[in-house]
Design a protein that fits this description.
It contains three helices and 43 strands. It is mostly beta strands and 569 residues long. It has four domains: 117 residues, no CATH class; 79 residues, Elongation Factor Tu (Ef-tu), domain 3, CATH 2.40.30; 167 residues, no CATH class; 125 residues, Jelly Rolls (Sandwich). The strands form twelve sheets. A seven-stranded mixed β-sheet has the order 32-30-31-27-26-33-34, with no helix packed on it. The protein has a six-stranded antiparallel β-sheet with strand order 10-17-13-14-15-12, with no helix packed on it. Strands 35, 36, 38, 41 and 43 form a five-stranded antiparallel β-sheet that branches. The longest helix has 9 residues. The radius of gyration is 37 Å and the shape is flat.
């Protein structure tokens, strides 16, 4: 990036100098010797605009063009009329100054370049300067009206809140509201205090302003009154409209006039959440897979730390189930759920509302390369899970249930050497939520347009040159849909056949449908092939169109599109 010197007196019309590439950070520069070196981590090139603001001789400060020799001021920051207080310049790069805006604060009017002291201060410092003041007025720490002698011209206004803090000991402080500010007189109605004693060195800052960054308001005694005693686990609420009297507000969950599960549910519906204060864990033991509900603290749900499930009801509203006891489901050894040896799988976990009792279920959406999504908008049946639960696309639940509403909680992914022998721990446990793909959703699509044609006279399948597409699956469990559409021709009487393959090795990895043209004479016709594959990897996969012919030469292409789409299972 290069921000070089320019010509033209732009500052008088825009109120600011054009940006500089870098700015000094405190070191003095020998402007006569010059040179191209690094300033604030930025290696300069000839002509770069540099804000020089830290010279020991402040009359040398200004905007210069970097050079291998003597540095000179840029033409837009050279003459007396081009400098005055309030002019701004933005710094583009640097470890310290990148993005900062500096204000010219010279007090000379007019400025005489080379004679006047030219200074630049960060805009944030200039802004906060009007949000704070100092005072030597002597006062004892206490509430009530207090009038301080301060500097004029501050950004103080009636009804604003200020922190009044002893400069030498910040523990002595007062918080109050401005009731008057005229000239150098500031009156504050103090309502809260911290510390004690009488002091005469005050720093006064507007609350919630840049000047107040790092200041802690007082929390002294007497600010708030309470009931005199409390009950563990209860919350405090205001007893009246003053904001200064507290009362025992009762328990957090379940009590009258307190936060209820329904309130939590209503807050979560808009985020499409089915579980609050809960998460999923998955573990294997004895060749069985156990999926459990835990609180966000990592414990089993309890009356003092419950998990809430939000499940659709018959009226398109929501039922809230408060889970206060341990909840899990175990897929026993030998139960495959329709999974395949050494093939990555994804098992979905749902919670059913069985007459007010939460029941967990598991579901595998993939059978072969066919994906059958679950549907939360309809009720579902659940088959009691057992050692013989070997079907895909069936809900298996903790006990048989019929026609019950459910919510999806998430999924677990694993690869088992022997299907039904749950020996390997899941590689991923994922809660459902916004952005999480559902079965059948498109994860990604990659396509390749091939303008030319590829030909072969091979009697067995060979990869057609250029007719390929590569995709990197995001999950080894997902299905890849591959399709190619183009034009197939043969130059004599015979059969021309094309089919998809994973990889480009001849007559290997073939899948999907074939497209065969066997005319009584030479033919030129549209052709397409489609297939679904489970590559079982997250490594990049190349898919190809292979062709063969019983006679003559097969040609395919001339504007082919071959596309690979990853589908969530």
């Amino acid at each position: 990036m290069s921000i070089n010197s320019i010509t033209g007196n732009t500052l008088l019309t825009c109120g600011s100098f054009p940006p500089v590439r870098a700015a000094t950070t405190g070191s003095n520069i020998n402007l006569v010797t010059g040179g191209l070196f690094a300033i604030d981590g930025v290696t300069l090139i000839a002509g770069d605009r540099v804000l020089v603001k830290d010279q020991s001789d402040s009359t040398q400060n200004g905007i210069y063009a970097a050079s291998t020799g003597t540095w000179v001021r840029t033409t837009d920051a050279t003459t007396n009329t081009q400098f005055f207080s309030g002019m701004a310049v933005t710094v583009a790069l640097g470890n310290v100054n990148a993005g900062q805006r500096f204000i010219c604060t010279t007090t000379d009017d007019p400025v005489v370049v080379g004679t006047s002291s030219i200074t630049f201060v960060a805009q944030s410092v200039v802004a906060t300067a009007t949000q704070s003041a100092t005072s030597a007025t002597s006062f004892a720490i206490g509430t009530g009206s207090k009038t301080f002698a301060i500097q004029a011209g501050k950004a103080f206004a009636v009804n604003q809140w200020v922190i009044v803090q002893e400069t030498s000991n910040p523990a002595n402080q007062m918080l109050g509201q401005i009731t008057a500010y005229t000239g150098t007189s500031l009156t504050v109605s103090v309502t809260a205090t911290g510390g004690s004693g009488t002091h005469a060195d005050w720093t006064i800052v507007l609350t919630n302003s840049g000047a107040a960054a790092g200041y802690q308001p007082p929390v002294g005694s007497g600010n708030v009154t309470g009931p005199g005693s409390s009950t563990a686990g209860h919350i405090a609420t205001f007893a009246d409209g003053t904001g200064k009297v507290l009362q025992d507000g009762g328990t957090l969950v379940g009590g009258a006039n307190t936060i209820t599960p329904s309130m939590f549910a209503n807050a979560a519906v808009g985020f499409a959440l089915g579980m609050l204060n809960g998460t999923l864990t998955a573990s294997v033991a004895g060749n069985a897979l156990t999926i459990a509900i835990k609180t966000l603290a990592g414990a089993d749900p309890s009356s003092s730390d419950p998990v809430f499930f939000l499940i659709r009801d018959a009226g398109a509203g929501y039922v809230v189930i408060e889970q206060t006891a341990a909840l899990s489901i175990t897929v026993p050894s030998t139960a495959t759920l329709g999974t395949v040896n050494n093939q990555a799988n994804r098992i979905w976990i749902g919670v059913f509302n069985n007459a007010g009792t939460a029941v967990l279920g598991v579901y595998n959406s993939l059978s072969g390369t066919n994906i059958l999504p679950w549907d939360e908008t309809s009720t579902a049946n659940g088959t009691a899970i057992a050692a013989g639960s070997n079907n895909a696309q069936v809900w298996f639940t903790s006990g048989t249930i019929t026609g019950k509403a459910f919510r999806i909680l998430g999924h677990v992914e694993s690869t088992q050497a022997v299907a039904g022998t749950w020996a390997s721990s899941p590689s991923k446990v994922q809660l459902i939520g916004p952005g999480v793909k559902r079965p059948g959703d498109v994860v990604q699509t990659v396509s390749n347009f091939v303008a030319g044609q590829a030909s072969t006279a091979s009697p067995t399948f060979v990869a057609l040159s250029g007719e390929t597409v590569a995709i990197m699956p995001s999950s080894a469990a997902n299905v890849i849909r591959v399709e190619s559409v183009g034009t197939l021709s043969i130059n004599t009487v015979g059969a021309a056949v094309i089919q998809l393959s994973r990889g480009t090795t001849a007559n290997t990895g073939l899948f999907g449908c074939t497209n065969t043209n066997s005319p009584g004479s030479a033919l030129f016709a549209p052709a397409s092939v489609l297939g679904y594959d489970t590559p079982n990897t997250t490594s990049a996969q190349t898919y190809a169109v292979q062709g063969k012919t019983t006679a003559g030469t097969l040609s395919y292409g001339g504007g082919t599109i071959i596309a690979a789409t990853e589908l969530q299972i």
